[in-house]
Amino acid sequence: MSGVSVTKGAEDAGPATGDLVVLSNVNKHFGALHVLQDIDLTIARGEVVVVIGPSGSGKSTLCRTINRLETIDSGSITIDGKPLPQEGKELARLRADVGMVFQSFNLFAHKTVLENVMLGQVKVRKADKKAAEQKARTLLDRVGVGTQADKYPAQLSGGQQQRVAIARALAMDPKVMLFDEPTSALDPEMINEVLEVMQQLARDGMTMVVVTHEMGFARSAANRVVFMADGRIVEEATPDQFFSSPRSDRAKDFLSKILHH
Amino acid sequence: MNVLLDYFPEFRDGFIGTVSITAVSTAIALVLGVVIAGFRVSPVPPLRWFGTAWVTLLRNTPLTLLFLVTTFVVPEILFPGMSAFVLGSLALGFYTSSFVCEAVRSGINTVPLGQAEAARSLGMTFSQTLRLIVLPQATRTVLPPMSSILIALTKNSAIAGAFSVTELFGWQKLLSEEGYDIVPIFLWVSLAYLAVTFTISGIFRILERRLEVAR
Ligand SMILES: Nc1ncnc2c1ncn2[C@@H]1O[C@H](COP(=O)(O)OP(=O)(O)OP(=O)(O)O)[C@@H](O)[C@H]1O
Ligand SMILES: [Mg+2]
């Protein structure tokens, strides 16, 4: 792993140098419910994919299978050519390369903001404390919460907490970042500050899978929109194509609903 | 002629005995209890089964029976020549560990699942997640029941007296057999137990207050 690589890969900012995440024929059930049905999805290095769809369509589940927070019943998932291993040390190592940002932030409540961003580096990457702190402070500055470093998460606004969560994930130098509705628990005035951080990340060439209903973000940052309904990928298109002329009836129906409120 | 003064060395030995067996079994109970609680929430099924079996077995066995088994059966087949003190501490520590385990487990369940998920998605192993993220946050809820469990342990240590461990309650037996009036004897014994249990609840009160200011 590189040291303090805060502005990642300026030299190869564009997408496409090989496939980073490949899901093929993935199926998953929750009891009788078939949440993921024959999912095939390939995410190229540097690509930003927005996953959109009605509630309960399986977007979160899809996102969580990629770092195996949810197991799958059949099919395969590979990250950077390596299939996801069983629970254990090897899986832990692989998860360190996959950053995850949750809807409810999930910052460690008993640790300060700074400690939140240092912990993974020190305990998982075995980084030196000094270096970890320096990198944590740089990342916190980068997401605009550098002055909050010594506070506890509960003392921060939702938007600040989510930006800390992004910094915490970035501190691991992940190959890909997963976002599960990162702005839907936020008050409207805080949504933009988080989206801006994500947009910058996309511009820096990070590979991202983002579950969101923020169409502004999808239009400006996504390379591709994946529309899910009832556990299936119904439609894949560029943002412009998808939002201006969706092909499937499900997507048309869905878009008319989210556009009208 | 004061019972306490006449038999002070025996009283002192008894008190030290009670404090020692309490301290040693507490250590055993805490370590085992936390480890077994980890087993019970572990992703590895055999560990979970073991944890469940441990708790079910020890929590539902009368303590006296457990003392009988450790004092008379264990030395016969496993560790001949082990002292009554060690055997007694093991019996009491194992027994109490099942209660500690359940208190810790209920504390673990109060920590939001998202905390562990965030830790795992950073690449922490199960034991790192438990040690660094979940247990520290469970501590606050675990302290009050833990205090009661350890006070119960202190009082349960009296049973060890019946199995030739020198402790306070044994002193009472010795003196009443010698024909002393049991009222003052009981008074002194209860005061000594109170000293131990008050110390325990005092320590826990300090710990609880510490944790409150720490956040
Ligand atoms: N742990 C679980 N056990 C049982 N059913 C679950 C579980 N998690 C999710 N589900 C169900 O699976 C379906 C898909 O859930 P998922 O959270 O992936 O949907 P989603 O597309 O993210 O929805 P939302 O937009 O509401 O977040 C839902 O019907 C949900 O009730
Ligand atoms: Mg969801």
From TrEMBL, chain A:
It is a peripheral membrane protein. The keyword Nucleotide-binding applies. SMART domains: AAA (SM00382). It holds the Pfam family ABC_tran. InterPro entries: AAA+_ATPase, ABC_ATPase_HisP-typ, ABC_transporter-like_ATP-bd, ABC_transporter-like_CS, MetN_ABC_transporter-like, P-loop_NTPase. Signal peptide: none annotated. Keywords: Amino-acid transport, ATP-binding, Cell membrane, Membrane, Nucleotide-binding, Transport. It comes from the Bacteria. Residues 21-255 form the ABC transporter domain. GO terms for molecular function: ATP binding. Belongs to the ABC transporter superfamily. This is Amino acid ABC transporter ATP-binding protein. The lineage of its organism: Bacteria, Bacillati, Actinomycetota, Actinomycetes, Kitasatosporales.
Automatic annotation (TrEMBL), chain B:
The chain crosses the membrane at residues 15-37, 49-71, 77-95, 142-165, 185-207. The keyword Transmembrane helix applies. Residues 15-204 form the ABC transmembrane type-1 domain. CDD domains: TM_PBP2 (cd06261). Keywords: Amino-acid transport, Cell membrane, Membrane, Transmembrane, Transmembrane helix, Transport. It holds the Pfam family BPD_transp_1. It is a multi-pass membrane protein. It is found in: Cell membrane. InterPro entries: AA_ABC_transptr_permease_3TM (IPR010065), ArtM/GltK/GlnP/TcyL/YhdX-like (IPR043429), MetI-like (IPR000515), MetI-like_sf (IPR035906). SUPFAM superfamilies: MetI-like. Belongs to the binding-protein-dependent transport system permease family. HisMQ subfamily. NCBIfam families: HEQRo_perm_3TM. This is Amino acid ABC transporter permease. It comes from Streptomyces ficellus.
